[in-house]
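Dock copper (II) ion; give full complex structure.
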Amino acid sequence: MVGKALALACTGAAGAALALSAVGSAGDRSGSVIVLRGTVGPGFTINLTRNGRRVTRLAPGLYRIIVSDRSSIHNFKLEKSGGAFERRATTIGFVGARTITVRLTAGRWEYYCQPHESSMKGHFIVGSGPAAPQTTTTDDEAGDDHGGNSGRG
Ligand SMILES: [Cu+2]
């Protein structure tokens, strides 16, 4: 009796593990929501990273941004150039983490600390538009956008 119960328990656990891993890989593959990390403070620094690397270009889509605000004198704002979108992730006085979910559309986006915008700011490009002029330009940066060139006669 005991042996049978154990066997059943094992089967159940294995089944659950399988289900979990299936869900996890499916989520990563479809890329439904991509996680970015924003940090501001404690000094006069602001960053937006993906997998630990500073974000410079992203594909359009839905993103979850986890913002760590490490100073009460800074905030974290995200906006699309041209004023089509503006979101304040954290406020002055707030210290801690906030998560915002944003659909990034093609264009130039900026993140900055509002009171110190002249020095605490960064930007990135969504889609295959031109890179920012002050960064080094490479000719073929948009190459990974076209999945497959099957133009063979
Ligand atoms: Cu600031």
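Observed: The domain at 34-142 is CATH 2.60.40.420 (Immunoglobulin-like).
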